[in-house]
Every structure is written in structure tokens, then in C-alpha cells.
Amino acid sequence: AYHHAKEVTCLDISEHAVLQIERNAKLNKLNNVKAVKADVFEQLRTYQLNQQKFDVVILDPPAFAKKVDDVKKAYQGYKDINLQALKIINDNGYLMSCSCSHYMTPALFLDMLMEASNDAKKITQMVEFRIQGKDHPALLGSDESLYLKCVVLRVKN
After folding, report:
1. pTM to 2 decimals?
2. CATH topology classification for 53-156
3. So what's the pLDDT on residue 146?
4. Has 150 been annotated as catalytic?
5. For the residues of the chain, what is the DSSP string, one character each?
6. Residue 1 has what pLDDT?
7. Portions of the chain given CATH number 3.40.50.150
8. pLDDT, tens digit, for every residue of 107-121?
């Protein structure tokens, strides 16, 4: 919104988070921010049904895998949310997808994004891959310390 987006729509299932978004937008005089209380999985499908498209979609869900036994289910959850997001992005738009689960390794996360791209029949180019900042250094040999991942994809039809 700050960088001249025509409109920004924020989704969160938490009423508290939606109220915080609205409060922050008002404090920063951002009149083009809309906060919606919704289940993102359902809302992305609603956007598809309504043929609503976006130039940029940012996904930053809570950790889907909090223990190793959750990885398979989490993989499917991440894949579904990314697949649905890819379907509503305009040609040459961008998907920023994040994961804060250390059980979802960078390699697994990238595999999931590739599968979601293929299933959505989209050509995606990775333009950025980020991990947590210098204030959270990852220890070599300690996979659990490499928990934040963020990938920016350019999406082509």
C-alpha cells in the first residue's frame, strides 16, 4: 500500500489480526488497505470462482508442521495454498510464499512450489530465495535453526 498499490487486501482468520491490520492502516494513513476475516483456503477458491485476479499474492501462514509427524500433511497444506494462489495471479505477477516450519526444509519447500506450479499449469521463475535475517543465524548441521524460508516467484501463464 505504501508503494502506491491501487489496493491491498489482507486475509486472516483471526479477528484480532484483522483489527490490528485496520488500526495500522489507519495510523499510517493507508486508505487502500482492506482487511478481511476469512479462511485463506476458502477465500482463494472464492476468488477463483469470481475470476478475481491479483498482481501480487503474499502467503505467510503459521507453521503447518510443528513436529516431524506433521510433514506429510503440512506439505499438502502448503501445496494447496500455493496452488490456489497461483491460479489467481495475473500473467507476469508475483507469488511470495513463506514457511516458518523447520520441518519443511528448503529443498522440500522448493519441491512443493514446483509441484504446485506444475499442477496450476504455470511457468514460475524464482527471482528470490531468502532465509531468516542475521539476528537469527542458522547453525550449520542444525536443520531446526533454518526455519524461515521465503521464495518470490514470477508467474507466467
Report:
1. 0.92
2. Rossmann fold (3.40.50)
3. 86
4. no
5. -TT--S-EEEEES-HHHHHHHHHHHHHTT-TTEEEEE--HHHHHHHHHHTT--EEEEEE-PPPS-SSGGGHHHHHHHHHHHHHHHHTTEEEEEEEEEEE--TTS-HHHHHHHHHHHHHHTT-EEEEEEEEE--TTSPPPTT-GGG---EEEEEEEE-
6. 64
7. 53-156
8. 999 999 999 999 999
